[in-house]
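Inputs:
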Amino acid sequence: MKASEVRSRFIEFFERQGHLHLPSGSLVPEDDPTLLFTNAGMVQFKDVFTGQRERPAARAVTSQKCLRVSGKHNDLEEVGRTARHHTFFEMLGNFSFGDYFKREAIDFAWRFVTEEIGLEPDRLWATVHHTDDEAAALWPEVTGIPPSRVLRLGDEDNFWQMGETGPCGPCSEIHYDKRPKGATLDLSPEQFEALGEADEFMEIWNLVFMQFDRGPDGDVPLPKPSIDTGAGLERIAAILQGTFTTYHTDLFLPIIAATESIVGRPYSQATEDWEEGLPFRVLADHSRAVAFMLADGVFPSNEGRGYVLRRILRRAGRYAWLLGRREPTLDTLVGVVVDEMSDTYPELAARREHLVRTTRAEEERFLATIDAGMSRFEEVAPEGSSGTISGEDVFRLYDTYGFPLDLTELMAAERGYEVDRTGFETALEEQRARSREARATDGAGGGDMASVEIRRRDAQQEFVGYEELRVETPVLGYEAEGDRVRLVLQRNPFYRESGGQVADRGTVRGEGWKGDIERVLENDTGDVVVEVRVETGSPPDVVDSVLAEVAEHVRRDTERNHTATHLLHAALRHTLGDHVQQAGSLVAPDRLRFDFSHTGPLSREQRLEIERHVNEAIWANAPVEIGHRPYREALEAGAMALFGEKYGDVVRVVSVPGMSLELCGGCHVRTTGQIGQLRIVTETGVAAGIRRIEAVTGRRAWRLAVDQEAELEALAAKLGVSRRDLSHRVSALQDEVRRLEALLAARRGAESADEAERLVAEAEELPGGGGLVRTSIRVAAGTDLGEFGDLLRARLQSGAAIVHVAQDDGKTAFLGVVTDDWIARGLKAGDLVRTASRTTGSGGGGRPHLAQGGVGDASRVEAALDEAADQARELALTVASGA
Ligand code: ATP
Ligand code: MG
């Protein structure tokens, strides 16, 4: 049975039992800062189980994308080694929100595995928490499993809790016995666990019985116990496909086959070749993780989720490297994952280009760093020696060269070195602390929390700010502190910063007092809290109702920028391609900033094209339509989902028909014409593969034009011409400058010639004939010494010169020339200059006929000229007397 059939049978089976099929949540948990990645099916229902959110139905079924690479559940090191662990996997789950409990959960699970997909009942074992007599009795009663195959295990395996407090309860697992027929059925819990570790048993399903609410005073029974279950799709597929490992199922074999053809080596499924096949399995696993993380909007970086992605990518790169690859490999495998999985997860195909391109870019970077880092590694761990590589060194390899710890460890082990892991981790933690600090001082805004007690539980807060900017509203919560008050308004018109759109400004008035909104925050139950500075009157003790008013012109400017952002996003994709993905956005009243994935700067033409495209949509004065639709339907219609946003089953969709369709909770103009105009102000790079556009609209676009016009006017006034003649005037000025420069050069040439003439006239007679110039001169800055040397040499006709040249700008040098006849007799300009320069403690030299050298100690210039001149005289004397 193919894995895809297991998935659909599971969903259909539970739909028949009255469960609502819900889509997988994102790998990036929505609004849960405590969790880097979704690691179980229940993550998207956390708030439902704690009662903070209404249940979507009494029963639900999902196939959830999971990642176990961080935190409490980290299976990274098991990947490829055990027969059953992955970083990315799919968890099938059925959920009861206060509806059915243990008996039905056990019954459903048993019927699914035995009747629906036909696992042999004799091979199934169950485990329960050692205190859970109820479950221990239910298993044999409901399923007929012999009590000897129901084992009682401890907290570690069979007790589940959401956090330090909150819902918790015992679990029950189903395990599959992979041992040959006839193996002993008499097992203690310890023996059973050891066999599980050894992959002789495989856990396939965990049923969590949410039974208690853990509080400071212990566990209190929940009034409505719930069920949360998780079954590994890969593991069930492995059993049904008769293979001992999830890696040899149809979910992984196509990726392994692609790897074989890329690296040109075969992979063997034989048990005895297990060790050798490790790199293939790691690559198959990691390519899935990478594809799904990228598709859910994670981008490789040095922090948080992006950092985990980068580590996985690099780990994969390292294994490809071990297989002999020196070029990107994973990009192709990511493509295979997209082909294999897009039917179920259309978000992969939707972002295919982006997935493959980002993977390749990251791999290329990794390969380049491996090359660069190898020489550093040679230094800290020379071949033929041994010892411990210090934490500092390991960290430097990691931080500067991008060597992950495991790569360093592997290479170190190959050479007989140890690695100071603790030292490395200390260094790493220090770095993290530094970057945390940097972030804290960044003042990034958003996510600000405030605790205001809600006094009136009889009403729910409602955001009315889409339609109303001025409302009389009851107050649900109120707190005063100095001249600041915090309010929870029942009918709240103030937008809280979200989806890039900044918070509203405005005022709040009560009886006898009035204040301005300073911040718009959120309390821990998700209500919007406004913080107001009281400007007139003084904060009262009790407030029942107020008049709340959003600063309209600020909001309208913000709306212009928000709709314009959607149009810009669409225009970017239209002009540059579908690889463009939003990577960050700021929608403020005075400007918009949009970060997006794209490599390389935009050309002038592209910029204009994008700007024109947006403005055409504005001129069309198209209606902005806002509606609600089921999430899946919206995605299928091509809506662009923004990541890190919270999406329920029904989402708010903002569309400009024919132009743009996005899931968005923000505030927008009613027709595009209200935007007025969009002007791109700057386009820059912010990170590898990420560009940033800043643009203005409406009154700011007008302001920009006015300011630019004023600048031109000022310029024209300065040049004393009309605006129309500006360009003409500037060209004329440039011509004038060129003419003057030429004139100056000619003047300098003439001066130089005169100077050369003068020097030659003052030359002393050399023994054997010809002249020797030995002197210091001052010349204009910018004089070309080579040219001057040539002039001097031509006028000298026969002889040599050693000259100290000081230019007006303070530069000094020795210049030496020798005529051809004296070169023939052994005198060389290079030698003279070298002697002079060396005497001042500097260096120089050059060709026999012309040379230049530096001047070190200025007080030695005269001595230097003497030395060089003496050298010339001596040589001349020797030649003359020898002749
Ligand atoms: P194991 O002990 O095998 O690591 P677990 O106890 O960590 O499993 P649970 O947290 O109970 O697993 O998760 C529920 C189900 O999800 C498991 O029964 C299994 O089928 C599946 N599962 C858990 N971790 C992984 C993984 N790393 N790769 C693939 N499937 C997994
Ligand atoms: Mg585990």
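The longest strand covers residues 201-215. Flag for discussion at group meeting.
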